[in-house]
## 1
Amino acid sequence: MNLQQWTDEVRAALDIEVEPDLRAILDTARDVAHGVERPAAPVTAFLIGYAAGVRGGSVRDIEDVDAAVRNLVPTPPADDA
């Protein structure tokens, strides 16, 4: 089973109609894991989903909450080469 199949199966089991942007979710999780610490990635993904759901759960709600969180992620310092 691959990521898309798993996501589709979970969405069906939970009766979720919105199809998430997997790339955006993974990008945010990666940035949080590297900019904060690894355990923050799944916690942040949960919080994004929860906040988007409270707002109504539309694709736009998810995008808005994701953008707000991405603005919080510390930018890693540039390498001195």
## 2
Amino acid sequence: MSIRRRWGTADVPDRTGTTAVVTGASSGIGLHLAEELARRGAHVVLAVRDPERGAAAADRVRAGVPAAALTVQELDLADLASVRAGAKELRARFPRIDLLVNNAGVMWTDRARTPDGHELQFATNHLGHFALTGLLLDTLRAVPGARVVTISSYLHRLGRIDFRDLDAERRYSRYRAYNQSKLANLMFALELHRRLTESGSGLASLAAHPGLAATGLGRDFPAPVRRFGPVFAPLFLQPAAMGMLPGLRAATDAGARSGEFYGPLGLTQTRGAPGLVRPGRAARDAEVRRRLWDESERLTGVRPLF
């Protein structure tokens, strides 16, 4: 009896001649994704809020992959004007985009509003990526085999889309806002898959989550968590390089299909090798997904055309 080997970075096919845009690529999962894609020959665009941090990240990738083809693109997902400007520049510079990885995010931030007046976590994690994908959709659809991969979270299972208070104007909980934003990420990926399929498009929309991974998101944690987190983190968190694997598999595995969701296969899906996982119950509500899409169009002013 043969034992099937676990999927890993060695399984990533050659990506020479392709262009991949990775948001939040200056650290954590996004940086690891960028490095692996560059290692396989892709031209990787590091779409980041801070160009200086993006340039430093590019240097780190080149240290491991000297021949890496990299571009740093300024893109602040919390600011819809920046998203529009960044998307315009990407379309002008890269008439071919084979892969968009919606990875960037913030977690458990203090209450804050974006320049557009939206709650920070919902705006950065969901609305910015919704707008970016919509603005790049025609470019992506023109490329055979292109994919959009949206990174959700294990905590999407605790999320609920509160249409009465999407922007947390009535009350704010850093945890509730984060869970809602990551549920929105997964719902967006699944609804995008449905709309692409119905339109007859070959563009694929997939989702992934890293389990519980040690990433730079901890910079926004409350002070007590930052203080004691390093002591307990090794007991619960897997390295960012492992947390990156579900997203990398969704982005590159030839056997991956539109509408699929990848995550760690270990107990409770918090760590382990990457594979197919089932979305939480709330994410499977098709009516809520359609309504969230409509609200996202209204809040961003971006209406993706199919």
## 3
Amino acid sequence: MKGNRVILSLVFLILGYMLAFSYHLTKSDTEGAKISDKQWERSYDLRSQLIELEEKNRTLQHELVEKQEKLSEIEKDLAKEEQVFYNLAEDAEKYRMFLGKVKVKGSGVEVTLADGDYDPTEENANNYIVHEHHVFKVINELYISGATAVAVNGQRLSYNSYIVCDGPVITIDGFQYPAPFVISAIGDPDVLFSALNLTGGVKDQLVNDNISFSLEKKSEIVFEPILGG
């Protein structure tokens, strides 16, 4: 009887141990499954956030490209406007120079017209003195050849200047000047020099009228602005 109890006790002990081990194993598997589920949910959330961020990034990139294209168009328009304003400013400066409102400095040429040598056989003295039409010929040729500013005996000319011959003197804008008449012009010296020296041109015409004509290039000519007006 005592031996049966011992055997029965061993059976219960082994059975208890098996039940305890089975419970512990089941609990471990359950907890492991729960951890795996949480990790999967976390990974899914992170992937979802990443996908959402990538979509936002693509959207922002498209917006950036569109804004860059608009900016490029604006820059092109501004460049065109800048060129227009530059041209207007350049034209305005040319008009101010033409009107004599600003000081100008540059290279150019200087023409000197003087009365011809006295000829006792010449009955009419007007045939060898400088007249306003002689001065006009030189001035017109200088402007046609690109002169930006012209002066006679230091008197700067403007768009409404007038020149009148009054005996042995010439009146320019109300100021009288005797011969010789020094005509200064700012512009390309080579072009102006060549234009006045053309065969059959201004120089030859004046020489044929017994006018003393001299021409030289100048590295620097300065004209002060015309006061008043």
## 4
Amino acid sequence: MAGYTGDGYLSIKGMKMFRLAALAFLTLSSFAVEANDVTDAINNASQHYQAGELSQAAAQLDYAATLIRQQKAAEVVKAFPDAPTGWQGRDADTNVAAGAVLGGGINVSRNYYNDQHSIDIEMLLDSPLLQAFTAMLSNPSVIVMSGGKLVKVQGLNAVQKTEGDQFELQFVTNSNAMITLRGDTAAQSVIEQLANAINLKQL
């Protein structure tokens, strides 16, 4: 799978590649989704199914699921912490993939910056890509072999890794969301501060 090393670790380079791939997904701009849009799609799917129009029924159900993921993405944005003192935060970006694209998924990211450094936080939810990373977290020897270090973030197992002047922190929440923070090694303390300030209950 692209972006993973031979032992299943999702590298810094791999995550950057995934982010570019995510932009190629079926991306929906942020807007309020009316509840009746979802129910209308479900009702249309039922009508198509009863008429034996299975392809159309599946398409309508996928559309309804995508709208629901969009609503979820709007909630996930609220989990991002405020910018630390001396830093600023850009508006969050949301990318919602349809179920037909790699099984669907939600990718939400936000950038924090100051005059010298930049930090990115990415949250990946409802994606089959989480399985490989979750399996790796259960095997500390694999983490060490891949150049990572097992640490704790808000009581959860996390992988800390440094590649050149880049620092990365990854962990999976109890709600099955993978969170990745990356930035300059000089900003490591701020990255750790942001990781511990994420509102996991919002996920």
